Amino acid sequence: MEDLTEKEQLEALRTWWSENGSFVVGGIIVGVLIIFGWNRWQSGIAETGIAASRLFENVMEAAGRGNLDAASEAADGLFSEYDDTAYAGQARLAMARMYMDNARDQDAADVLRPLADMSSDNELALVGRLRLAKILLYQSKAEEVVELVKDQPESAFSARFNEVLGDAYVALESYAEAEAAYIAALDDNPSVRTVDAALIQLKINDLPLVEELAAELSEAEADAATTAEPAAEETAAEESPAETVDDSAEDGEPEAE
Q1: Alpha-carbon distance 70 to 62, whole Å?
Q2: Which of 7-16, 113-122, 123-132 has the least mean pLDDT?
Q3: Most-buried pick from 38, 117, 159, 166 (CB within 10 A)?
């Protein structure tokens, strides 16, 4: 095949361009828009991160000075504008600590609640849930603790959750469940402890034994029965004086001749 002449090549190029030029131009425009949008998105993320980090720094600076009001103001701005960032989660933990230091345990629980309600695959959420559980225990809300931490998925916090769960069951006097939770805490990854094993063992040792509880219950029932018997005899005696009088009368009357 002979090579095309220059004129034929130009003509073929014009034909191809007339058929495909609009697609080429469109592709170039789409590519430019994608690049522009990507850059704007990345820039927006960077701006969001910078703004969130500044508010977080304000929270921590105020916390360092012990200025609860200033820390609360900065934290409120962070939560309202950038609550889906890691900075907000960290700020919630910091604010909870400040509230507890100032004897405002309900405010501490309230600020941790949104963090604790996040997905369990978020490490900050697990920390928030654990700290909220401890605050609820402090508030004597053991039933809420059980609902909050039971059936947690396996994680690096499993042993800690089980220990708190055991403490809640003790408060509810559910000693068998408490012992099971404590044992689960001890059995979780014993090679790398995340809990104080000696302390948990002491908690187990301090639990009332099931046999002792049963014996105490039996003694209480026996005492109740013993107390009930004299009361029943006294009641019977009170109800039969007429019969006694009648018998006496019959013995004392002379028979008629």
Answers
A1: 6
A2: 7-16
A3: 166
Give the closest residue to 185 by CA, choosing from 209, 164, 206: 164
Q: What is the CA radius of gyration of the chain?
A: 39
Contact at 8 Å (CB) between 99 and 111? Answer: yes
Which is nearest to 54 in space by CA: 84, 25, 88, 95? 88
Alpha helix ranges (H) inside the chain? 6-65, 68-82, 86-101, 105-116, 123-138, 142-149, 158-171, 175-187, 197-206, 210-239, 241-252
Nearest to 181 by CA among 142, 235, 226: 142
Contacts of 182-190 with C-beta under 8 Å, sequence gap 24+, read 182/207, 184/158, 184/159, 185/158, 185/159, 185/160, 186/159, 188/158, 188/159, 188/162, 189/158, 189/159
Convert the pLDDT of each residue in 61-119 to its tens digit.
Answer: 999 999 999 999 999 999 988 888 889 999 999 999 999 999 999 999 999 999 999 87
